[in-house]
């Protein structure tokens, strides 16, 4: 969309379909008549209208979740409410620029038995923050969230709002600076975090697993770096004056992702580059594991060609067929073996170790649409939509036999499916 003299675009270029074919017209007609799409769209609006915490099982507002439903939230909530949530993240921003995972009212933090070491700042009188330090996506998620809010609302003035003694624009850059100053490995030219399963925030070495500790095995993965690339794309659109600084970083990180993380022989991203050894047994072939979520975000970051995107989809579909899962939201395949993670919820096909998440499956659907694979995207979204209706809501994840698990009212899933549905509607409206 055009806004104040510059073009706001997605992180990847939308690939047009050219002159509509008979197949295109038939698909557009099916989309326009598809009541399932409209039912889930309505459900998503209702779900996001009901609040901002990640889901029924979470008291906090999480930035990695808020990022994926903020565009829809901007449609169904007052702009001031949306901005105030973002301001809380900025008020809780660390002196080094880091961004917390989530926030909770102070009164609830005082009585919480969750186990977090809560974060407080003089700027934020009402909320306490927490940060899962094993992950490296909080800063990138906030930049992406602000981009989506501004894109959806047209509220460029928000970038000049002052939080403490700094503008939102300045704080966005500080968040990116934090990653370069504190999470950047100069040997590989990539960001690092703890060893986790794909996009997950649970390390193997602890029964909970959300904090870096003396047992952490530090690693580099595609998800953290792809999220960073998308955030840099967004930042440079919002703040064109920073292109000279961040454009070079963006180009270098993208190149290093393909140099070090892409296995051209297997046509997949490797799970990890280990910086101080692997937590898994030496005879375990981790290289065989295919990361669905990280691959979807890498596609969003523009790292793969259209041919490679189609091959990635074929691999995901094959993984679904082999595992018996319901959708390409399958986190990864094959799974890490039983006992690989001390967290008991990380059993094979449990939670982030092979659970089936619309939260990431919906992102892959969006990328298929943007790369012109509309028919394939329409086929793959159907089981995601159907189970939302079957279970009367959006769940955090599903088992390999398609049973809902985790939090209900999972707003991240609602947000990504809603955004995908909008892309289908956009496609259908352009076919004549």
From TrEMBL:
One of its GO terms (biological process) is carbohydrate metabolic process. Keywords: Glycosyltransferase, Hydrolase, Transferase. Residues 43-323 form the Glycosyl hydrolase 94 catalytic domain. InterPro entries: 6-hairpin_glycosidase_sf, 6hp_glycosidase-like_sf, GH94_catalytic. Pfam families: Glyco_hydro_94 (PF17167). GO terms for molecular function: glycosyltransferase activity; hydrolase activity. This is Glycosyl hydrolase 36 superfamily. It comes from Parapedobacter indicus.
